[in-house]
Design brief:
The complex is a heterotrimer of chains A (489), B (135) and C (462).
Chain A (H helix, E strand, L loop, with lengths): L51 H12 L22 H7 L2 H4 L9 H18 L3 E3 L5 H18 L7 E5 L5 H8 L3 E5 L9 H7 L4 E6 L12 H10 L3 E5 L12 H4 L3 E3 L2 H4 L14 E3 L11 E5 L2 E5 L18 H39 L3 E2 L10 E4 L1 H7 L3 H10 L6 E2 L8 E4 L7 H20 L1 H5 L12 H6 L10
Parallel strand pairs in A: 2-3, 2-4, 4-5, 5-6
Antiparallel strand pairs in A: 1-7, 6-7, 8-9, 10-11, 11-13, 12-13
Chain B lengths: L8 E2 L4 E5 L8 E6 L1 H7 L2 E5 L6 E2 L4 E7 L3 E5 L4 E6 L8 H5 L8 E4 L12 H12 L1
Chain C lengths: L7 H11 L28 H15 L3 E2 L12 H7 L2 H4 L11 H18 L3 E2 L6 H15 L7 E5 L4 H11 L5 E5 L23 E6 L9 H10 L3 E6 L25 E5 L15 E5 L12 E5 L5 E5 L6 H4 L12 H37 L5 E3 L8 E6 L3 H10 L2 E2 L2 E2 L10 E5 L6 H21 L1
Parallel strand pairs in C: 1-13, 3-4, 3-5, 5-6, 6-7
Antiparallel strand pairs in C: 2-8, 7-8, 9-10, 11-12, 12-15, 14-15
Helix pairs in contact in C: 3-10, 5-10, 6-7, 10-12
Classes of the chains: A alpha/beta (489), B alpha+beta (135), C alpha/beta (462).
Amino acid sequence: MPELQAREPLIFELSKPGRGAGTQFPPRVAGSAEIPAHLRRAAPPLLPEVSELQAVRHFTRLSQMNFSIDTHFYPLGSCTMKYNPKACNSFAMLPEFLGRHPLGPEPQGFMACMYELQEMLQEITGMRGVSLTPMAGAQGEFAGVAMIRAYHRARNDLGRNEIIVPQAAHGTNPATAAMCGCTVKEIPCDADGNVDIDALKAAVGPATAAIMLTNPSTLGVFEHKIVEVARIVHEAGGLLYYDGANLNAILGKVRPGDMGFDVIHINLHKTFSTPHGGGGPGSGAVGVGARLLPFLPIPVVGKEGARFRWLTERDLPQSIGRLSGFMGNAGVNLRAYIYMRLLGRDGMVRVAEFAALNANYLMKRLQAAGFEAAYPGRRASHEFIITLKRENKLYHVTAMDVAKRLLDYGFHAPTTYFPLLVPECLLIEPTETEAKEDLDRFCDAMIEIRREMATEPEKLSSAPHTMPVRRLDDVRAAKQLDLAWKPAA
Amino acid sequence: MSNIPSDLRYTKSHEWVRQAHGEAPDGAVEVGISEHAQSALGDLVFVEVPQAGRSLSAGEACAVVESVKAASDVYSPVSGKVVAGNAALATQPELVNQDPYGAGWLFKVQTNVSIDGAALMSAADYAIYLADEAK
Amino acid sequence: MAFIPHTPDDVARMLELIGVRSIDDLFDEIPGELRAGVLGVPPAMSEMEVGRLLSERAAGDGRPLNFIGAGAYEHHIPAPVWAITTRGEFYSAYTPYQAEASQGTLQLIYEYQSMICALTGMEVSNASLYDGASALAEACLMAVRANRAANSRRILLPRAVNPVYAQVAQSIAGNQDIVFETVDFDRSTGCTLLDSLQSYGGQDVTALVVQQPNFFGNLEEVDQLTDWAHQNKVLLIAVVNPTSLALLKAPGQWGTPSGGHQGADIVCGEGQPLGVPLSSGGPYFGFMATRMQYVRQMPGRIVGRTVDTEGRPGFSLTLQAREQHIRRSKATSNICTNQGLMVTAATIYMSLLGAEGLARVAAASLQRTADLVARLARVPGVKPAFSAQRFHEAVLLLDRPAAPVLAALARRGIFGGLDLAERYPELGPALLVCATETKLDVDIDAYAGALTDIMNSSRAAA
């Protein structure tokens, strides 16, 4: 059973006027510089006043109230929660990298790493150019769709405003299309989880800007008619957008560029193992084929002779522009670069191979234990879906109940209720860095939970039992909004 | 089976319409969401209604009902001008859950369209529609 | 094998259970003609080799003495900040979807939101956005949703706002037909011209952006600008430096007493000064805060305090119905994450410094910049550009192009500031310089000495 820190007061509750971490205060500087009275702050902000040890203990204890990859198996589908090598962090935090101001003269050592990262990503994805600027997958998606839009406009093809997405798409796909001023057309998937080709043929036309696809899809299966899909969309004058959320499944096995995609975003925090950090920072590099090269977001690292330099609006006048204050999440990109150098050519292919091995093994073991796979006739990619609709009917347990009960067994829950198409689903992604023993322990827990469904269903419906809190009142949270601490009156 | 009052008309997007009574000017209709819709959404945590004076066309998104798991647009079943929004919902969104056909009404629209028009369903048709949707 | 725990025996047993002969069989659904050949990437390196490579490249980049700000500021970062932030339980956790197993991250974000509200004087904060520039873009999109009195999608963006922020806002918000119009600054004070706003009075305008301190480091007359906005039913978007807020009036209090102290409507900015290293430009984080009445228009994650089934306090993500995974094409933004790890660092930083420590950092930075400007202004051919009161940045005018001067300084290991020639040609040769609490007398002397040499020798050469 997991042992997490039980409860920790708010940092504000530890605060006392007059206390402070004095060694952290800079020395006073003699002089007469002052803020004019009418622009000055009236009262100091209510920040905590605590000693250094109090702060250290408080935040250390908070950390101990979390599940993480370093402490727990974390099979969160679609999120690729693999081991984050410590070396990536250590080397990215070398003082020269850390202390470097982004607007100083172009740092050749750092830029060499970024240039090589661009080149490696280009090669792995089968694209012609890469920009590392987008700061997360969603921003990469934004960049991708904005480039597609700019491409059609540059050709004076102004009516192409429609983005086609399969029903199983991530919610970001339609949200991104809307942010780019496009409308969204959803098309269904067939019973095997493939795009419904007839529906696609009916959907494309002179308004089609692009189709956004994840392959393998969020249903955990490879879209094997991808070549036909690409042909249909291209013939209709649209482009193909590859959502790189599931790139881990095919790394080195098949390249999106070879499948016919024109643009891709890569979640470096998934496939290339940069830390998820409790929800960011990520990095969403974009790769493009020849048609979209002029539109890449800036800055991009260029090479002239032996010298690296930032390519800006002067070099790429048709660029969709800047997406960040400087050059994206540089430190995250550096971690991805280090990871790729540690893996090398063969290591990258092994990522996909062992991710697939672990997923297929886990799927078969769970099926043998009586769980129903959503697509039993298909290979798992690097993830797969279990549907609990039968268990829901028989025992009135939900996917959420199973997810919460897994926490009691010391496993982070898989993704629940996504994709929306599959009822009572668990999307399970073990990743390549988990050992067989850990997969087996997870299966054992699932088998035990399955037994509890029939014999002690209340253990599930009231789970979790061993966490710092029980299930939270989300309705109260949203109705009686308490979003910031205020001192007692 | 969900409660479907026979004196109301319904839309495919689960709004109901009623000829308003009492203080509303002539031709005003009252709009809300059906018992089925509120139950599918679950506990509402926030409701946004249109302001009086706003002009609406039939099918226009004009209100939002939000639960923990979903936020849905509400579409005006008729064209017209908003006479009133239900102010009580600002602090008591749960009224829509508790009394969807009464105190949980959303807004009133003045319209010159007859609500008996063909675009809206009768209670019996809506019941069939719900049964079909459930298949 | 790198990070793969499987023994040959494990592999054999797993393949047997799956019912295939080789791992390659698991990829048999991929059409053969699509299969990739050998990747053209280098072979693997050991950790030792990679460490050597990176150390050499880092050493080549050196550790210059930095006087550049322009949106990213060098401050002392207390040792506990990153020692705790890089703990695996923070570093390698994900978005707190399973609230019960993520109370640490959730409580921390709640504390962060509370601190941002305290600093800005606003009622609600989100869990952060990507960076300051993209936060402004999101604030502009939010203003369009929030300002129901305006239909124009027109936003006034002064030239004294960071020009890169303006570019990013254009790249992101421009796709939704938002039109940005510039407002000029006064050549002598270096502050936004209230007069050039007057022509917009009574027009349909969605929002006015005010950066305090502005891009030149000058202090804007925020009260008058705020009053003007509200008199004209225009929302006020404040872009602020969080360090400066220890001394400067909180945006929630902007406006004159006669205008009712209404305050800014949306506050955003770059969070990097709060314990995040410069690190070549990122990752940083953007913060955003607003009034309660606009909370449902605010993009990004938000954490709320609630109770569990036993009535104990706990934290969870709330107002998620606004977000992309539920609302899809009607979401407030496509953003999925916040910059969780950066927020972790910032929350620890603000806890260690408190109001007093942060005020000391701000006061020291203010004084150091005043010292730097006074010192450099004594160098022949150098003079301050503007007369307004400053925070911790200033524009200096040179009597010759800045680029060769900066290059000569860089050869001596000094980053002497940002060349404004490209962004503000009307100023003539100009530099934006910054000194924070990290710059001591000896550093300022070093800069002044080197600059004097360079100015003298290039004059001699000329």
